[in-house]
Amino acid sequence: MNDSLPTHQSNRSSLSLWIELLLRVVLGCVLLIAGGLKLFHMPLMADSIINYQIMPDAYVNIVAIVLPPMEILVGIGLIAGLFYDGALLIATSLFAVFWISVAYAMSQGYDIDCGCFGTANVTRVGLLALGRNSLLLSGAVLLWVMNSGRCRFDNLCFKRPAAPPPESSPHV
Q1: What is the structure's pLDDT at 5?
Q2: 156, part of any domain
Q3: Residue 83 lies in a domain
Q4: pTM of the entire structure?
Q5: Which domain holds residue 122?
Q6: Of 1, 23, 104, 143, which one is least surrounded by beta carbons within 10 A?
Q7: Three-state secondary structure along the chain?
């Protein structure tokens, strides 16, 4: 048998790695762009949050200040694989909150801008925004399923010790 020929399993593994990398880059870029576009328009960001009517006004400014830099840092984490598990957890949570917020606004009949990409892209709350958030959330969930641990900066900087081999018990 020729060991130099790739096997079906290695082709699938390679394809899986490329899909995982593509998803990481796409989701990371979406967060980078969204955070970057919101970063310099925080008062308008606060107005967008208020329009959803899902949180007390006392927390709106805090969220408007924290959300854009968080999106940027999480986007970098996904793309670079730096603190990847934490970045993926936060990204998944953000996409879930965004989906729930848009679904809630739709259920209440609000005719508001989604605020997803700041003021650069004015998309109304509706099926387009909900569909986009569904795709983003699905992509994040798929990354959890595919989480191979490969191609991550974390693995280069913070090498984890290998698990010791299981002790074999003597047969009686």
Answers
A1: 45
A2: no
A3: yes
A4: 0.77
A5: 16-151
A6: 1
A7: CCCCCCCHHHHHHHHHHHHHHHHHHHHHHHHHHHHHHHHCCHHHHHHHHHHHCCCCHHHHHHHHHHHHHHHHHHHHHHHHCCCHHHHHHHHHHHHHHHHHHHHHHHHCCCCCECCCECCCECCECCHHHHHHHHHHHHHHHHHHHHCCCCCCHHHHHCCCCCCCCCCCCCCC
